[in-house]
Design brief:
The protein has 2 domains: 47 residues, Arc Repressor Mutant, subunit A (Orthogonal Bundle), CATH 1.10.10; 157 residues, Tetracycline Repressor, domain 2 (Orthogonal Bundle), CATH 1.10.357. It contains 11 helices and no strands. The protein is mostly helical.
Protein backbone atom coordinates (compact mmCIF):
# COMPACT_ATOMS: atom_id res chain seq x y z
CA UNK A 1 0.00 0.00 0.00
CA UNK A 2 1.40 3.41 -0.94
CA UNK A 3 2.36 5.67 2.03
CA UNK A 4 0.05 8.54 1.03
CA UNK A 5 -2.86 6.17 0.58
CA UNK A 6 -2.13 4.55 3.93
CA UNK A 7 -2.06 7.93 5.68
CA UNK A 8 -5.32 8.93 4.00
CA UNK A 9 -7.01 5.72 5.21
CA UNK A 10 -5.73 6.26 8.74
CA UNK A 11 -6.95 9.87 8.77
CA UNK A 12 -10.35 8.90 7.37
CA UNK A 13 -10.78 6.29 10.08
CA UNK A 14 -9.58 8.74 12.74
CA UNK A 15 -12.03 11.37 11.51
CA UNK A 16 -14.96 8.96 11.70
CA UNK A 17 -14.06 7.57 15.11
CA UNK A 18 -13.25 10.90 16.74
CA UNK A 19 -16.57 12.17 15.40
CA UNK A 20 -18.50 9.16 16.72
CA UNK A 21 -16.73 8.52 20.03
CA UNK A 22 -14.34 11.37 20.72
CA UNK A 23 -10.59 11.46 21.23
CA UNK A 24 -10.49 9.88 24.68
CA UNK A 25 -12.79 6.96 23.80
CA UNK A 26 -10.85 6.07 20.64
CA UNK A 27 -7.69 3.98 20.76
CA UNK A 28 -5.06 3.55 18.07
CA UNK A 29 -6.17 -0.09 17.97
CA UNK A 30 -9.68 1.12 17.05
CA UNK A 31 -8.20 3.28 14.30
CA UNK A 32 -6.12 0.40 13.00
CA UNK A 33 -9.17 -1.87 12.84
CA UNK A 34 -11.34 0.77 11.14
CA UNK A 35 -8.66 1.70 8.60
CA UNK A 36 -7.54 -1.85 7.94
CA UNK A 37 -3.87 -1.13 8.57
CA UNK A 38 -1.35 -2.46 11.05
CA UNK A 39 -1.26 -0.50 14.32
CA UNK A 40 2.49 -0.07 13.93
CA UNK A 41 1.90 1.90 10.72
CA UNK A 42 -0.15 4.45 12.63
CA UNK A 43 2.73 5.11 15.01
CA UNK A 44 5.15 5.15 12.09
CA UNK A 45 3.22 7.85 10.20
CA UNK A 46 1.82 9.87 13.13
CA UNK A 47 3.78 8.81 16.25
CA UNK A 48 0.97 9.53 18.75
CA UNK A 49 -2.80 9.91 18.87
CA UNK A 50 -2.41 13.64 19.61
CA UNK A 51 -0.55 14.00 16.32
CA UNK A 52 -3.49 12.44 14.51
CA UNK A 53 -5.83 15.00 16.06
CA UNK A 54 -3.47 17.82 15.14
CA UNK A 55 -3.14 16.78 11.50
CA UNK A 56 -6.89 16.28 11.25
CA UNK A 57 -7.68 19.71 12.69
CA UNK A 58 -5.02 21.45 10.62
CA UNK A 59 -6.59 20.02 7.47
CA UNK A 60 -10.06 21.16 8.50
CA UNK A 61 -8.99 24.70 9.35
CA UNK A 62 -6.92 25.08 6.19
CA UNK A 63 -9.85 24.01 4.00
CA UNK A 64 -12.26 26.21 5.96
CA UNK A 65 -10.02 29.26 5.47
CA UNK A 66 -9.88 28.67 1.71
CA UNK A 67 -13.66 28.22 1.62
CA UNK A 68 -14.30 31.49 3.44
CA UNK A 69 -11.77 33.43 1.41
CA UNK A 70 -13.61 32.53 -1.79
CA UNK A 71 -16.80 33.99 -0.30
CA UNK A 72 -15.41 37.38 0.74
CA UNK A 73 -16.24 40.40 -1.39
CA UNK A 74 -18.45 38.66 -3.94
CA UNK A 75 -21.36 41.11 -3.54
CA UNK A 76 -21.36 44.83 -2.69
CA UNK A 77 -23.37 45.33 0.51
CA UNK A 78 -22.42 44.41 4.06
CA UNK A 79 -25.41 42.11 4.60
CA UNK A 80 -24.90 40.35 1.26
CA UNK A 81 -21.25 39.68 2.04
CA UNK A 82 -22.09 38.35 5.50
CA UNK A 83 -24.74 36.09 3.95
CA UNK A 84 -22.22 34.75 1.44
CA UNK A 85 -19.68 33.98 4.17
CA UNK A 86 -22.27 32.25 6.36
CA UNK A 87 -23.55 30.23 3.40
CA UNK A 88 -19.98 29.14 2.67
CA UNK A 89 -19.48 28.19 6.32
CA UNK A 90 -22.71 26.19 6.38
CA UNK A 91 -21.77 24.42 3.15
CA UNK A 92 -18.38 23.52 4.62
CA UNK A 93 -19.96 22.07 7.78
CA UNK A 94 -22.49 20.14 5.72
CA UNK A 95 -19.65 18.60 3.70
CA UNK A 96 -17.53 17.93 6.81
CA UNK A 97 -20.06 16.68 9.31
CA UNK A 98 -17.64 15.29 11.89
CA UNK A 99 -15.76 18.59 12.22
CA UNK A 100 -18.32 20.13 14.58
CA UNK A 101 -18.56 16.97 16.67
CA UNK A 102 -14.80 16.75 17.11
CA UNK A 103 -14.34 20.42 17.98
CA UNK A 104 -17.29 20.66 20.36
CA UNK A 105 -16.36 17.46 22.19
CA UNK A 106 -12.74 18.51 22.63
CA UNK A 107 -13.74 21.96 23.88
CA UNK A 108 -16.24 20.43 26.32
CA UNK A 109 -13.68 17.95 27.64
CA UNK A 110 -11.11 20.68 28.18
CA UNK A 111 -8.37 18.37 26.91
CA UNK A 112 -7.41 20.18 23.70
CA UNK A 113 -8.84 23.68 24.07
CA UNK A 114 -5.48 25.29 23.26
CA UNK A 115 -5.27 23.21 20.08
CA UNK A 116 -8.75 24.35 19.03
CA UNK A 117 -7.85 27.98 19.76
CA UNK A 118 -4.67 27.63 17.72
CA UNK A 119 -6.65 26.33 14.75
CA UNK A 120 -9.52 28.80 15.11
CA UNK A 121 -7.42 31.93 15.64
CA UNK A 122 -6.43 32.58 11.99
CA UNK A 123 -10.06 32.19 10.88
CA UNK A 124 -11.24 34.47 13.71
CA UNK A 125 -8.62 37.11 12.86
CA UNK A 126 -9.56 36.90 9.19
CA UNK A 127 -13.25 37.42 9.97
CA UNK A 128 -12.52 40.22 12.45
CA UNK A 129 -10.31 42.14 10.01
CA UNK A 130 -12.75 41.71 7.14
CA UNK A 131 -15.75 42.81 9.19
CA UNK A 132 -13.94 45.78 10.71
CA UNK A 133 -12.97 46.98 7.23
CA UNK A 134 -16.62 46.80 6.13
CA UNK A 135 -17.86 48.67 9.21
CA UNK A 136 -15.24 51.32 10.00
CA UNK A 137 -15.98 53.12 13.30
CA UNK A 138 -19.49 51.57 13.41
CA UNK A 139 -18.85 48.93 16.07
CA UNK A 140 -16.62 48.64 19.10
CA UNK A 141 -14.36 45.65 19.61
CA UNK A 142 -16.81 44.31 22.22
CA UNK A 143 -19.77 44.70 19.85
CA UNK A 144 -17.84 42.98 17.09
CA UNK A 145 -17.17 40.01 19.36
CA UNK A 146 -20.89 39.73 20.13
CA UNK A 147 -21.86 39.96 16.46
CA UNK A 148 -19.36 37.28 15.45
CA UNK A 149 -20.48 35.06 18.34
CA UNK A 150 -24.15 35.43 17.39
CA UNK A 151 -23.75 34.66 13.70
CA UNK A 152 -21.30 31.85 14.45
CA UNK A 153 -23.81 30.29 16.83
CA UNK A 154 -26.64 30.47 14.30
CA UNK A 155 -24.63 28.36 11.89
CA UNK A 156 -22.75 25.95 14.15
CA UNK A 157 -25.52 25.02 16.59
CA UNK A 158 -27.62 23.52 13.80
CA UNK A 159 -24.85 21.08 12.94
CA UNK A 160 -23.76 20.39 16.51
CA UNK A 161 -27.28 19.38 17.55
CA UNK A 162 -28.39 17.97 14.23
CA UNK A 163 -28.93 14.46 15.57
CA UNK A 164 -30.94 15.82 18.50
CA UNK A 165 -33.07 17.92 16.15
CA UNK A 166 -33.66 14.83 14.01
CA UNK A 167 -34.99 12.86 16.97
CA UNK A 168 -37.06 15.76 18.29
CA UNK A 169 -38.72 16.64 15.00
CA UNK A 170 -38.56 13.40 13.03
CA UNK A 171 -37.15 15.43 10.13
CA UNK A 172 -33.63 14.86 8.84
CA UNK A 173 -31.94 18.29 9.18
CA UNK A 174 -29.21 17.37 6.72
CA UNK A 175 -31.16 16.81 3.53
CA UNK A 176 -30.42 19.30 0.76
CA UNK A 177 -33.88 20.81 1.21
CA UNK A 178 -33.50 21.17 4.98
CA UNK A 179 -30.04 22.72 4.66
CA UNK A 180 -31.24 25.28 2.12
CA UNK A 181 -34.15 26.15 4.41
CA UNK A 182 -31.74 26.63 7.30
CA UNK A 183 -29.48 28.90 5.25
CA UNK A 184 -32.51 30.96 4.22
CA UNK A 185 -33.55 31.32 7.86
CA UNK A 186 -30.03 32.43 8.87
CA UNK A 187 -30.03 35.01 6.06
CA UNK A 188 -33.30 36.44 7.36
CA UNK A 189 -31.94 36.60 10.90
CA UNK A 190 -28.76 38.30 9.69
CA UNK A 191 -30.80 40.95 7.92
CA UNK A 192 -32.68 41.67 11.15
CA UNK A 193 -29.44 41.76 13.11
CA UNK A 194 -27.83 44.23 10.73
CA UNK A 195 -30.69 46.73 10.39
CA UNK A 196 -29.40 48.84 13.28
CA UNK A 197 -25.78 48.48 12.23
CA UNK A 198 -26.42 49.68 8.68
CA UNK A 199 -28.53 52.55 10.04
CA UNK A 200 -25.66 53.54 12.32
CA UNK A 201 -23.20 53.44 9.42
CA UNK A 202 -25.49 55.62 7.29
CA UNK A 203 -25.82 58.13 10.14
CA UNK A 204 -22.04 58.24 10.63
CA UNK A 205 -21.50 58.74 6.89
CA UNK A 206 -24.04 61.60 6.85
CA UNK A 207 -22.35 63.29 9.77
CA UNK A 208 -19.04 63.25 7.93
CA UNK A 209 -20.42 64.65 4.69
Amino acid sequence: MQPDRTKARILAATDALFGERGFDATSTRDIAERSGVNKALIHYHFHAKEDLLGVLLDGYYERLTVKLLTAFGQRPTLVEQVEDVLDAYADFLAQNRTFCSIVQREVASGRHVDRIVQGTLPVFQLATTWFAELTPNAVTAQELLHVLTSVYGMVVTYFTYGRVLHQLSGVDPFTDEALEARKLHVRRMVRLLFVELESRMSTDAGALS
